[in-house]
Amino acid sequence: QVQVVESGGGSVQAGGSLRLSCTASGLIFDDYAVGWFRQAPGKEREAVSCISWSGGTTYYVDSVKDRFTISRDNDKNTAYLQMNSLKDEDTAMYFCAAVISMVKPLAEECYPARFPYWGQGTQVTVSS
To answer: What contacts 60, CB < 8 A, 6 or more positions away?
Structure first.
């Protein structure tokens, strides 16, 4: 049984930083691409960033480029999202998800419906 668990959310002031972690079990982690997604109240879930199975390829939505960094440690079955220079508009529930063997380029596959395995989410609240 695949299980995905996020951690690291919290409340932070604008300009601050948080690091989210995503640990997966019940799968061969380094066979899977990982994505971070977020959903604010009243809005649709959106992609934030994705990383290939090896970590060699990454994708970021424009709004987080140069502020967020996705990474992974396959020995620990864990992916990370380092979030710096946080803004009010980053406030959302953040979800981690996993999908096996992306065929198309990462930027074309980094969308919620592509990912079958999801965590429960971790809340990030940014206040100014």
So the answer is: 48, 49, 68, 70
Residues 6+ apart with CB under 8 A from 39: 45, 46, 92, 93, 95, 121
What is the Cα–Cα distance from 128 to 108, expressed in whole angstroms? 34
Q: What would the pLDDT profile of 83-119 be if each residue is shown by its tens digit?
A: 999 999 999 999 999 999 778 889 999 999 999 999 9
Structure tokens at 13: 């002031």
- State which amino acid sits at residue 26: G
Using DSSP's 3-state secondary structure scheme, residue 108 falls into helix
Asked if 73 contacts 107 with a C-beta cutoff of 8 angstroms, the reply is no
**Best CA proximity match to 94, nearest among 125, 113, 121, 120:** 121
Q: Within 30-78, where are the H helices?
A: none
Buried b (16+ CB within 10 A) or exposed e, 68-98: bbbebeeeebbbbbebeebeeebbbbbbbbb
